[in-house]
Amino acid sequence: MKTTKLMVIAGLSVSLMGLSNLSSIASAASVKTIQKAQTKAVLQKVSTHYNSKAKSLDISGLASQGNKVVVKYDTKKIATTSINAKHEFDAKVKFTGYKTISLYAVNKANKRLTPIIKLTANRYAASTPTVEKSHRTSKAINYDLTTAKNKGSLVFYYQGKKFYSQKVKSTKTRISFTQDQLKGKKGNFTVRYFQTGKKASPAVKAPIVKVGSVTQIFY
Question: Residues of 186-199 as b/e, b for ≥16 C-beta within 10 angstroms?
Fold first, then answer.
């Protein structure tokens, strides 16, 4: 009987050793999976800041892998910037318009390593204002405008020259011009919205309607 017990215990010991080995193999596989996930090539913490004086957009971020970051405006390559030892990159680019900006990291052989990050105009430019109403009386013309944000400035231009600027305190803003201010002016104003760190919005028209004109709504 004693011999039988020893055999059972020995068998149990072998089984436990087998389970222990399986557990070690599973743990090793898990570590490899985590390591693979951690070393995946990506661009992250991408931020933009527009310098209105230099008229350039600063794009910065981190690249987990790669030697350089390629920046494209629409389909045209406009910059290539190096990735430093801390995996940081910083590109200053100039362009006209409001098309999508794409960026990705490449290796020494210029082979793309990361997924493409796309920055639409909503990311780097101020939102386009909307002229909701334009109504002119014998004393003045009134413009009712809306903006997506309540921090920024609405700027009116006439024939390409700055005419008037007003800071917004709400997403809805009314701006009025007297008859004296409108003297000799016809056609329309153009309006742009400005926000700190953003490129100015695309311009929209604000028609200079005739006296007594019915309220107009523009979309």
Answer: eebbbbbbbbeebb
**Residue 82: CA atoms inside 13 Å, Cβ hemisphere, count?**
3
Query: 66 is written with which tokens?
Result: 């790669």
C-alpha–C-alpha distance, residues 33 and 140, integer Å: 70
H or E segment to which residue 64 belongs: none
- 3-class DSSP state of 15: helix
Can you tell me the distance from the alpha carbon of 43 to that of 81, in angstroms, rounded to the nearest whole number? 13
| Strand-pair partners of 42 | none
Say if CB 173 and CB 154 are below 8 A apart. Answer: yes
pLDDT digits (tens, 9 = 90+) for 112-169: 999 999 999 999 999 999 999 999 999 999 999 999 888 899 999 999 999 999 999 9
Residues 41-59 have pLDDT tens digits of: 999 999 999 999 999 999 9
**Coil vs helix vs strand at 166:** strand
Place of tokens 């760190």: 197
Amino acid at 70: V
What is the CA angle 40-42-44, rounded to 5? 135
Task: Please give the model's pTM, rounded to 2 decimal places.
Answer: 0.76
